[in-house]
Amino acid sequence: MLSGDRLIHAQVNFPYVIQSIETDDASMKDFLFTLGCFPGEEITILSILADNYIINVKDARYSIDSELAKTIQIK
């Protein structure tokens, strides 16, 4: 995986660091921020089920869809 890729292309059970949230949709960005998805935070995909990504951020598990996963830039 190259640096600066999107979460949607990440490997399962491998920790990444959030580089940025790339969207013009303020509500989508606000939602991700409420989950703790800030630049510099560690994020891990625990599993992918259909169009849903089970992620771990700050010792909590969340389910996000592929549209949200596309907005998270990782390194």
Automatic annotation (TrEMBL):
GO terms for molecular function: transition metal ion binding. Keywords: Iron. It holds the Pfam family FeoA. SUPFAM superfamilies: C-terminal domain of transcriptional repressors (SSF50037). This is Ferrous iron transport protein A. It comes from Alkalibacter rhizosphaerae. The keyword Iron applies. Residues 10-74 form the Ferrous iron transporter FeoA-like domain.
